[in-house]
Design brief:
heterodimer; A: 2 domains; two-stranded antiparallel ribbon; 1% strand; B: mainly alpha; transmembrane helix (chain B); EC 7.1.1.- (chain B); NADH dehydrogenase (ubiquinone) activity (chain B)
């Protein structure tokens, strides 16, 4: 490696490891670019995986097999779907408003992906750290509503218009409950322990200063040695519950999928969309689901922290009962073990494949998949990689739990009627949210 | 962090703001006007960011773009657009409009040429990490009274809207 390249690598690696590295313009620009590429590919792969998982899990919940034809256990089904969508004719209705019809899916995709720039996958693994991080996320995701309204109106058709009217009413209502829950979590960042930590990290902040920065919120949970889910039990839990319900409504998923209720509105606001443009809506919907789940993970589930994490800081190191050499190592090995278990499942699948000529290609493919998973597991065993990637693993695992819940909701709950939806939002969630906020503030007075 | 290519960002954002503001009043279709207004508001948020006011920029997006414009579009969608398209777009009030424009232009010119004394020469920008905290501090200490009055005003508006919308409460 040439001298200059080595020095660049050193500079960038070192800067990414120190807290407050976002202040360095060159290093932050380079790392931002790397993370943008990583997040874009990561989210796209996650959307593809979700597509397959949703069909499989829903099928198994309904005692069906789900996709089985394309690849072993239908593993290649999402790729086949993506190809079909790209080749499909892209129809624009004759009476549609051309510009707005084109602008709507673009708006939705841009907003769904812009949100990711403040999501902290680890203490240093984020595109950027903003002082207004959380506010930025909520603001940008609220622009997504505009896209849905534009799509519904520009189609110049009845079902889409009805769908987007429903959707805007629903999203505006649930945004308030969501905001109340979020504010109570932000309030918790200002309580005891947090202030000292910020002084060490940023060199600013007094004894009781809260923060909106996504990284700062996780840091506050680290400093207070608790996930906000368990803070002031059961207040944190109730706020989390409100957010968890509101976020399903915000992403228009079952049981709040009135904007695209098939039995009444065909496909809601995207009835008139087909081919590539429809696939943009699909991509944006799943990207938004991952994004709001990441907000929930960051605010209440301790972000990148592993369960029972000890307090790490530049000047302080407070271990707890569940930390220390051996236990730290055991938790650090979990990512690699997860991949080994997945590889084992794939390997068992390979062995159990029918021994027939027609299945030979599939068997080889599945074996290759098992090998790839095992290889990723091996890479994760390497100490340097293990240390850097652990945070991302725990964050992704928590988000994955939420994604599974989304599918589970869809498999179990019947769809709400519109007046029930409004009743729940305005008469139960918002008052509860306000009560939780006031009680949190009252309990926080002492600390 | 040192700002990069500041003037280019400023000119770009201002150009977007002005062009889309013009489109707000020249488009015949109210939905197109509303969407242009969204672009104006977003570029204003960008200008706030350049003035080291990230909190104001965030609130601008969340309130105006995410809240008010959504309600605007919600209402416009229910209006019969074809009827609107046939209506006359401009009222015959060019005399008043010209006078207002000239006065406003004169004011701008005066401030541009003689306004040095109005503003402090250079305000050191607050560090990015504490911007929101400082807004909170001044809002709840120095400007507590106006803040509360504004909230009471909003409450009156909410109750008024409910009273006007519902005959029987």
């Amino acid at each position: 490696m040439p001298q200059w390249l080595q020095s660049v690598v050193d500079y960038v690696t070192k800067s990414n490891n120190t807290p407050g590295w976002y202040a360095d313009p060159v290093a932050s620009a380079i790392w931002a670019l790397i993370y943008i590429i990583l997040i874009f590919t990561g989210v796209s792969i996650a959307v593809i995986a979700m597509n397959w998982l949703e069909r499989k899990i829903l099928a198994h919940m309904q005692v069906r097999l789900g996709p089985m034809r394309v690849g072993p256990h239908g593993l290649l089904q999402p790729i086949a779907d993506a190809l079909k969508l790209l080749i499909k004719e892209d129809i624009m209705p004759d009476q549609a408003d051309k510009v707005v019809f084109w602008l709507a899916p673009v708006t939705i995709v841009i907003t769904a992906f812009t949100v990711y720039i403040v999501i902290p996958f680890g203490p240093t693994h984020a595109v950027t750290d903003m002082n207004i991080g959380l506010l930025f996320m909520l603001g940008v995701s609220s622009i997504g509503v505009l896209g849905i309204i534009m799509a519904g109106w520009a189609s110049n058709s009845h079902y889409p218009l009805m769908g987007s009217l429903r959707s805007s009413a629903q999203m505006v209502s649930y945004e308030i409950a969501m905001g109340m829950a979020v504010v109570s979590a932000v309030l918790m960042t200002s309580f005891k322990g947090g202030g000292n930590f910020f002084r060490q990290i940023y060199g600013t902040g007094g004894a009781s200063v809260g923060t909106l920065s996504m990284i700062g919120i996780v840091r506050a949970q680290e400093a207070q040695q608790t996930w906000f889910l368990f803070k002031f039990f059961p207040l944190g839990l109730i706020a989390f519950f409100i957010f968890a319900v509101a976020m399903v409504a915000e992403t228009n998923r079952a049981p709040f999928d009135l904007p695209e209720a098939e039995s009444e509105l065909v496909a809601g606001f995207h009835t008139e969309y087909s081919g590539f443009r429809w696939s943009l809506f699909f991509l944006a919907e799943y990207a938004a689901m991952i994004a709001v789940s990441s907000i929930a993970v960051t605010l209440w589930l301790g972000g990148w922290m592993r369960p029972f994490a000890s307090l790490h800081g530049p000047n302080v190191e407070i271990p707890n009962y569940w930390s220390g050499g051996a236990i730290d190592l055991a938790f650090a090995l979990v990512p690699a073990l997860t991949f080994f278990v997945l590889a084992l499942f794939a390997f068992i699948g390979t062995v159990r494949m029918p021994k027939h000529r027609a299945f030979r290609v599939q068997t080889i493919g599945l074996a290759g998949f098992a090998l790839a998973l095992g290889f990723i597991g091996l890479v994760l065993l390497e100490p340097h990689v293990r240390d850097r990637v652990q945070d991302i693993f725990w964050f992704s695992l928590k988000v994955a739990v939420f994604m599974y819940m989304y599918i589970w909701y869809r498999g179990t709950f019947p769809r709400y009627r519109f007046d029930q939806l409004m009743h729940l939002g305005w008469k139960f969630m918002i008052p509860t949210g306000i009560a939780v906020l006031i009680l949190t503030a009252a309990l926080g007075l002492g600390s | 962090m040192q700002p990069v290519a500041t003037s280019w960002f400023f000119y770009g954002l201002s150009a977007v703001a002005i062009v889309s503001a013009l489109m707000v009043i020249t488009r015949k279709n109210p939905v197109h006007s509303a969407i242009s207004l969204v672009f104006t508001l977003l570029s204003l948020a960008g200008l706030y960011l350049m003035l080291y006011a990230p909190f104001v920029a965030g609130v601008q997006i969340i309130l105006y773009v995410g809240g008010i414009m959504v309600l605007f579009l919600f209402v416009i969608m229910l209006v019969n657009i074809e009827h609107n398209l046939r209506e006359e777009q401009f009222n015959k009030q060019w005399l008043v409009a010209t006078i207002a424009t000239v006065v406003l232009g004169a004011l701008f010119g005066y401030v541009y040429y003689h306004g040095k004394g109005f503003f402090p020469a250079a305000v050191p920008p607050t560090p990015e990490q504490v911007n929101t905290q400082q807004i909170g501090m001044s809002l709840y200490t120095a400007y507590m009274f106006p803040f509360e009055i504004a909230s009471v005003l909003l409450l009156v508006a909410i109750i008024g809207a409910v009273v006007m919308a519902k005959k029987r409460i």
